[in-house]
Amino acid sequence: MSETGADHEASTLTAEPGDAQAGRPAGRGKLLKKPRRSTVVLTVIALVSGLAFATVFAILVTSLAGKSSPPLARTTGIPKTVSTKLANMMQLSPVPVAKAPGFTLMDQSGHPVSLASLHGHPVVLTFMDPHCTDICPLVSREFVNAYKDLGAAGRNVVFIAVNVNPYHHTTADMAKYSSAEGLSSIPTWHFVTGSVPSLHKVWSNYEIQVQAPNPDADVIHTSLIYFIDPQGKERYVAAPMVDHTKSGTAFLPPGQLADWGKGIALVTRAASH
Q: What's the whole-model pTM score?
């Protein structure tokens, strides 16, 4: 990467590194493992992880016995409109209803955007690197698909990504990425950025880990999607997924990309009420 006037504060902005996915070296935009925002959700994750192991074991046993596999476990509090299979794929969890941490940053058009100013609109919030070649472009496609799946209701939904790249944090960087990934087709899309200290504060408030050791290194960051209701309160959180080819190229099968779009739209509708 080339430097674009960012502050040299990587040492103070670098979170503890997470595990690389699927045993591969961590690359730009890979997911960092992190604790959820409350012990309640931590318990949910522990239960889901335990149930996942138990389910796999049960499937193996029942398969050998010639019996059908048990039904998938469903996390309590998931919207009824979201199937258990889809919820598990999205790693969807309800969160204790609390006010989402506020912020005011500049979007790709150079306009200030505050979370408080979006009162009355459901908000889909995530964190992206404008130079990401891994999971961020996939989430971008899912956002575009979700907006389309929402139909007329999509005009009232605000999609926001907060920049996680401390070396590329100009509005021009946000605009270039938004255009390249088709996000500009969403009328209510905002890719927000600001000074490195202001970004760091937002990352910390949303417990997003960012590892950016220098301008030429890949940025590694937590990938989460928060669903915020029209009253500005967090309702659900999901963890986007990614797979890689043998050459290391990030991808998801078209069917999963479409399912993610539908899932984001369904959860957004549920968070709107």
A: 0.77
